[in-house]
Amino acid sequence: MVKELDLDEIITSDYTRKLVIKCIVIFVIGAILTGAIFYLSIYKNHGTSYAENFRIISDLKSQIFHKSIYIYLFSSFFIIAGIIFISILYSHRIAGPVYRLENFALKISNGNLSTQIKLRQKDAIHSLANELNNLVVKYKELLIQLELKSKDVRNAVLLIEKSINEASSQKLKENIIKVSESIAEIKKMLYDIKL
Amino acid sequence: MKLKYQRRNYIIKKGFQGRFVLRFIVPAVISSLLAVIFFNMLAYRKIDTILYSMKIPSASTSDIIFKEIVYANIFAAVIIAFILFFVSKRMLHKIKQPLNRIRVEIMKVTHGDLRSKINLRGKDEFKELADNLNLMIAGLNLHFSDIKNHVNNINEITDEIERIKGKHISAKTSQNNTYLINEKLSELTANLDSLEKKLRVFEK
């Protein structure tokens, strides 16, 4: 019975936390730069008279809307580019391993149990790759043991043929028992395999 | 000597990565829009207040609306943090769920259950991975079915040989039994050959 797994093991909480923090940092840096650019773009020193100041403030009112649109559009382009870059990097840490696991699964289905899959340190889903590696090791070891046992069966069959030729009844009986015992061991190895 | 540069392909799964990136772009766009709208609201209110109050501060235009710039950006940063928190949580759940289902089935297969099948829901990610893993499980199932069949055949033939050997026989029928045993041995050897062939199919 497979026990319930802790979901956190598949992808660590670190992964999303770091991604979200990086996106927020990019946005905040973008916002600070936007603010700085906007501050400089609308800068005008105060006038010497009330009428001049009134005119300056009125001009500011008429400029604010389209200047804010242009500047925020301009900075949004860079913010979004930064967020795209970071999210592609992070998505690659899942997509890359998934792609490699797909190919690994195909290799196993074609009978290749000689390799293991290794992911990069920063990749996600290490636990899934480890499970697949465990699967390969288990079936590889089982098949190696089965091959060894089948050799025992082969040797016992050759001895049966020899004892028939030598008309040795006792040896024949012993060798038949050897074959039965080896087959019983093979069956025991295959007992847990449910088809 | 020319150096060989290996270009790393960062876009491997366009669909999955596209959806992933979009989930982060949309909050950024929404927050930027809200920042612009909020800033304009605050700035216009401040300017109107100044114009109608008849008291114009002796400060530069930038200093007059500096606080509004800061408040609007703080507001946008809070909004994006809020949205990203929920978006990332939901996204992580959507990614973890199918991967966890896959992992559970792989563990079952590791424990010997080759009847396992990975079934993902319609909208789940990683269908291709699930398909390839199901192919892998089906392949293992087929091979081990053949292996078990050959082993069972060998077992039955061995039992028959034992039965033939165990029969009380006269001198006349012992030659006949030897012939039968030899026949069974040929059958056994044929099954053993097939079994070994099946075991050798796997590259270890």
Write the SSE topology:
The complex is a heterodimer of chains A (about 200) and B (about 200).
Chain A: H1 13-41, H2 50-109, H3 126-165, H4 169-190
Helix pairs in contact in A: 1-2, 2-3, 3-4
Chain B: H1 14-53, H2 61-64, H3 66-110, H4 127-166, H5 171-200
Helix pairs in contact in B: 1-3, 4-5
Q: Tell me what portion of residues of chain A adopts beta-strand conformation.
A: under 5%
Number of helices of chain B: 5
Alpha-beta content class of chain A: mainly alpha
The helix fraction of chain B, in percent, is: over 70%
- Report the count of strand segments of chain A: 0
The overall average pLDDT of chain B, rounded, is 87
Low-pLDDT residue spans of chain A = 1-5
Largest interface: A-B, 103 and 105 residues
- Outline of chain A: rod-shaped
Could you say which overall geometry of chain B the principal axes of the C-alpha atoms support? rod-shaped
User: What is the C-alpha radius of gyration of chain B, as a whole number of Å?
Assistant: 37 Å
- Rg from alpha-carbon coordinates of chain A: 36 Å
| Percent helix range of chain A | over 70%
Q: For the residues shown, what is the average pLDDT of chain A? A: 88
What does the largest sheet of chain A look like?
none
Distance between the termini of chain A: 16 Å
Summarize the structure.
The complex is a heterodimer of chains A (195) and B (204). Chain A has 195 residues and is mainly alpha-helical. Chain A has helices spanning 13-41, 50-109, 126-165, 169-190.
Could you please describe the fold and organization of this structure?
The complex is a heterodimer of chains A (195) and B (204). Helices cover 77% and strands 0% of the residues of chain A. Chain A is an all-alpha fold and 195 residues long. Chain A starts with 12 loop residues before the first helix and ends in a 5-residue tail after the last helix. Chain B is mainly α and 204 residues long. Chain B is rod-shaped and about 135 Å long. Mean pLDDT of chain B is 87; it is low at 1-6. The chains are: A mainly alpha (195), B mainly alpha (204). Chains A and B meet through helix 1, helix 2, helix 3 and helix 4 of A and helix 1, helix 2, helix 3, helix 4 and helix 5 of B.
